[in-house]
Amino acid sequence: MRSSLGVLVGVALVLSALPAAAHHGWGGNSDAVSEMTGVVVSPVSLSGPHGTMKIKTADGKTWDITLAPPFRTSSAGLKQDTLKVGNMVTVHGNKNRDANRFEMKTVQVDYEGKHFMVYPEREATLHR
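Now predict its structure.
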C-alpha cells in the first residue's frame, strides 16, 4: 500500500512538471524585433500554454504567431473573438532564429488602430 502511494506521488510530480517543460522563453527567437502585416487565417486561440494565431503575409507565407499565456493575452484585450479570418493585422515581435520556421513570438498585435500589448514589459524593445 505504501509503495502504491509513493508511485502515485511520483507520477503526479512528473505530470505537474509537463506544463513547465512546454513553456519556452525568448532564447529561440532573434534578438531583432520585426514587424509584419498579414491576413488572419486562423484566429486567436487561448487553449494552450500560450495564445496563438496564424497570419498569411503578402509573400504567401503562413506564420505561426505565439502570444502571451491565455490570461495575459485576454487581459490585453485580445480575446478569441476579437479577430476574424480575413482581418488584416500587424504584429511586432521576434521571429524564430531558424529562417525556415515561420514563427514569431509576438509582443504586440495592431488591428484597426487598436494596440494589443500582450507583453507590456517588453514594450521598450519595440522602440529600439
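Residues 50 and 69 are 4 Å apart (CA to CA).
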